[in-house]
Amino acid sequence: FQLRLPFFPPPLSFYLLVTALEKIVSKPGDNATLSCIYQGGELHLKNLLVYWQIADDQDQCSVVHALISGQDNEKEQCTHFKNRTRLFWDRLKEGNFSLLLLNVSQSDEHTYKCIVLQKSEYTKVIHQASVALSLAASYSQPILSGPIRNNTEEEVTFSCRSDNGYPKPNVYWINKTDNSRLPSKLEISHHADGTYSVFSTLTVKASPNIQIECSIENKILQENLSAN
């Protein structure tokens, strides 16, 4: 029996065991729980093989966590996941094979597969689950500054700043008189915790009636923060 066996297509009867793809969002640096719950009755851990694997990139090391006959097996676990995965031992006999992934980062954004196999006369799949992990963090409410008159006094400059979000956002400047987008400059800073800060400047012709808005869009969170 090889550790990569669960990647082989199961018999058609087992496709009914595959749960819908669950999508979860976690903040960089936080812990994420990948759900895998079997509800088919009492289980004996010594007869089980439980694998958590990366499902969307089989070119790299794919073993996230393995439980064999009631014991963690770290021999073929990917180095990237060493000391970063935990099962909930008090819940295993109830069929809860969810995985706690510690200190998540950008490199953990994958679709993961949980595969539970039972050993009897032959080894069979009794449960599968898939979880897609995305990372996201809300940006701070943007702070809009200006206008600052340039040397020519024919143009003015506004600035807009927002901090500690993930992933990189879309930054828009909008002319509120006609809702058109205005060209601007953007600087992005990457922090040690994986989050970003953005600083954008807009230079426009001076006008007594100008109305502008700075908008920070985080697509994953479907979040749009603005200042005007």
UniProtKB/TrEMBL annotation:
> SUPFAM superfamilies from the xrefs?
Immunoglobulin
Entry's transmembrane regions? none
Q: Name one GO biological process term.
A: T cell receptor signaling pathway
Q: Does the keyword Membrane apply?
A: yes
The record's annotation in SMART domains points to: IG
UniProt KW keywords: Immunoglobulin domain, Membrane
Superkingdom as given in the UniProt entry: Eukaryota
Q: By its UniProt entry, which InterPro entries does this protein fall under?
A: BTN3A2-like_Ig-C, Ig-like_dom, Ig-like_dom_sf, Ig-like_fold, Ig_sub, Ig_V-set, IgSF_BTN/MOG
The chain positions of domain Ig-like read: 10-132, 142-226
The record's Pfam families line, in alphabetical order, gives: C2-set_3, V-set
Location(s), subcellular? Membrane
Keyword Ribonucleoprotein annotated: no
Q: What is this protein called?
A: ICOSL protein
Top-down, what is the taxonomic lineage of the species of origin? Eukaryota, Metazoa, Chordata, Craniata, Vertebrata
Gene name per UniProt: Icoslg
